[in-house]
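In this supplementary section we document a worked example of the pipeline. Step one takes a protein sequence of length 126 as its only input; no multiple sequence alignment statistics are reported here. Step two produces a three-dimensional model, which step three serialises into structure tokens for compact storage. The input and output of this example are shown verbatim.
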Amino acid sequence: MKLRIKGDSLRIRVSPSEVARLLEAGRVEETIHFAPESGACLTYALEHAPVRQEIGFRWRPQRVTVVLSSDKARSWAEGDQISIQGSFAVRDGELAILVEKDFACLDESHAENKDTFPNPNRGKVC
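The serialised model returned by step three reads:
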């Protein structure tokens, strides 16, 4: 799972195996450690739950969880839809959240393309 944070936007990219785990287990997560101390880390997660809204989030110190509705997670995972997005009011504006399938790089670098979705632009000429 890849996490990108830029300003008030958060983007999560997930691989096919992570999407499968999300559907099976209900949650996938990663932790990044910044120093040897136990609290010097950030855990980010994607989960699904039987909720009304298509996408939501929870924040706790050192934890960020993006929550998809179970119905939306399943239809997104099994269909052609690339991403799910939403935005939420925060202190000084809006937090944008994007969850998307991780596509293979078009340069066909094998290390980066391991466990990715087939790129829909493969073979197209610019």
